[in-house]
């Protein structure tokens, strides 16, 4: 059992590569063999026609749960599909036990439709603090990693989010309308204004990566499921970005955030987007 943050740092120093290997093996064994080859019986609906789950989601999460739990004895896994089956398991995020936060296929709709714009997300947290993350886009063979205090990297190259070009419209990816309620849509209305170019998001993990790379200025989301945000939030932070909720506080993966929230390339952009969201609320 891990006793303090220092020993978690030591664990990451020894085993960050093992986590990467586990994610790649899960992709090779369970995800990519089904990409563009899914049979009808391998796809189900959870909450509606846009909320899909596949055998790849379930089996990749099962694989990662077994490997990551064995890699860090005493840790627990909070995975999207396991929480769907047992909502109480989400409460592990509130404790001081190390938690692996797993989204086995982020962008399931894209995956189902044969679009390469999906990824696999893993983050390690303790007591609500994000410590490390892995964002793997297997159809593109891109891996982004971040360790708190050590920077963010894409395929070994350090990421710097930078700042938007002065005078250019802010490029902001927002919660997709297919996944938002009318109240949530109203909460995002402040972004439809001069100087902002909003668009619906695809895979949340890949949108965060685009912010960390400086290809997208910000995201604005109206839901707080940790598996969608944990890996990307740390990636953006370590690339020099920032995140804020509607009240101006940083986003908490443990929940209870005032929504919507934003993550942006730099603190000034996060404040600007947060102000627009507050004005539209």
From TrEMBL:
UniProt cross-references to PROSITE patterns, sorted A to Z: IMP_1 (PS00629), IMP_2 (PS00630)
InterPro entries, per database record: Inositol_monoP_metal-BS, Inositol_monophosphatase-like, Inositol_monophosphatase_CS
Record field: catalytic activity: a myo-inositol phosphate + H2O = myo-inositol + phosphate
EC number from the UniProt entry: 3.1.3.25
Keywords: Hydrolase, Magnesium, Metal-binding
Keyword check for Metal-binding: yes
SUPFAM superfamilies, sorted: Carbohydrate phosphatase
Enzyme class: hydrolase
Gene3D superfamilies tied to this protein: 3.40.190.80, Fructose-1,6-Bisphosphatase, subunit A, domain 1
Superkingdom of origin organism: Bacteria
Pfam families noted in UniProt: Inositol_P (PF00459)
Entry annotated with the keyword Metal-binding: yes
Protein name in the entry: inositol-phosphate phosphatase
The species this protein was found in: Streptomyces pseudovenezuelae
Lineage per the UniProt record: Bacteria, Bacillati, Actinomycetota, Actinomycetes, Kitasatosporales
């Amino acid at each position: 059992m891990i006793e303090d943050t220092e020993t978690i740092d030591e664990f990451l120093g020894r085993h960050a590569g093992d986590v990467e290997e586990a994610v790649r093996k899960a992709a090779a064994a369970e995800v990519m063999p089904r990409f563009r080859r899914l049979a009808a019986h391998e796809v189900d609906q959870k909450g509606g026609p846009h909320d899909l789950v596949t055998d790849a989601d379930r089996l990749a999460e099962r694989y990662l749960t077994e490997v990551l739990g064995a890699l860090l004895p005493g840790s627990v896994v909070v995975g999207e599909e396991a929480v769907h089956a047992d909502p109480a398991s989400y409460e592990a995020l509130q404790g001081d036990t190390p938690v692996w936060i797993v989204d086995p296929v982020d962008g399931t709709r894209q995956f189902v439709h044969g679009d390469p714009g999906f990824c696999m997300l893993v983050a390690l947290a303790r007591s609500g603090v994000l410590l490390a993350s892995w964002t793997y886009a297997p159809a593109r063979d891109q891996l982004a990693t971040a360790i708190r205090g050590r920077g963010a990297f894409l395929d070994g190259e350090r990421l710097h989010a930078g700042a938007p070009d002065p005078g250019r419209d802010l490029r902001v990816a927002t919660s997709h309308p297919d996944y938002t309620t009318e109240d949530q849509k109203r909460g995002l209305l402040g972004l439809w204004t001069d100087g902002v170019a909003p668009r619906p998001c695809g895979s949340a993990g890949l949108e965060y990566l685009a912010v960390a790379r400086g290809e997208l200025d910000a995201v604005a989301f109206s839901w707080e499921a940790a598996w969608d945000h944990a890996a990307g939030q740390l990636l953006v932070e370590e690339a020099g970005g920032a995140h804020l909720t509607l009240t101006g506080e940083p986003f908490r993966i443990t929940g209870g955030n005032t929504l919507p929230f934003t993550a942006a390339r730099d603190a000034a952009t996060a404040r600007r987007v947060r102000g627009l969201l507050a004005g539209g609320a």
